[in-house]
Amino acid sequence: MPSKKAEPFHWDSLVRLTHWGVAAACIGNLWLNEAGEEWHEWLGYAAMALISLRLVWGLSFARGHARLRALIPSRADFRQQAVELRERAPATPGHHGSGKLAVWALWLTVLATAGSGWFQNTELGFELGADDWHVWCTWALQGMIALHLTALAFTSWRQRSNLVVRMLPAVRGARPKQAQARQDQHS
Q1: In angstroms, what CA-CA distances link 69 with 57, 104, 171?
Q2: How far is CA 65 from each of CA 24, 94, 157, rounded to the nearest angstrom?
Q3: pTM for this structure?
Q4: Distance between terminal CA atoms of the chain?
Q5: 88-120 residues labelled b (16+ CB within 10 A) or e (exposed)
Q6: What is the mean pLDDT of residues 5-13?
Q7: What residues contact residue 121 under an 8 Å CB cut-off, 6+ apart?
Q8: Positive or negative CA dihedral for 138, 109, 146, 58?
Q9: pLDDT tens digits, residue range 95-143?
């Protein structure tokens, strides 16, 4: 069953800043530098600070879908997700049920990776083998990133909606295609 285009939805500026900041820190630390370099440590601290900022934002000033309580999945979220994917319905604002779980899983995995990286440099962490924990966390994080990108591509394809655009800055003055088409018909 063909879908209709949904109205555009964009995450707020702070959500986009923290998302792309954490993504840049992960890319830098996982694939562009060597462990133990000074900037490797600083990118880990930056990832923890950005996630902390996002959590504080979600508890305080964020609105709508950016609030942390909006990221707690319910059974209804999963039922709605199944219906929307089956019917190829347009993507709705916010996250599906599995997307809500993925947000928490990604945040926890990034925090565990950065935290174990810090902990391995302490005397206790060295004694407890935190360097092994850190390696396991980096593998888990890479798996979570791959799952995130695969789910994003699949959901975008299935719902015929470019979900990446939601994390990009909104173009000021841009009007939805449907509104533009209606105006063109009446002109």
Answers
A1: 12, 12, 28
A2: 23, 5, 22
A3: 0.84
A4: 31
A5: ebebbebbbbbbbbbbeebbebbbbbbbbbebb
A6: 78
A7: none
A8: negative
A9: 999 999 999 999 999 999 999 999 998 999 889 999 999 999 999 999 9
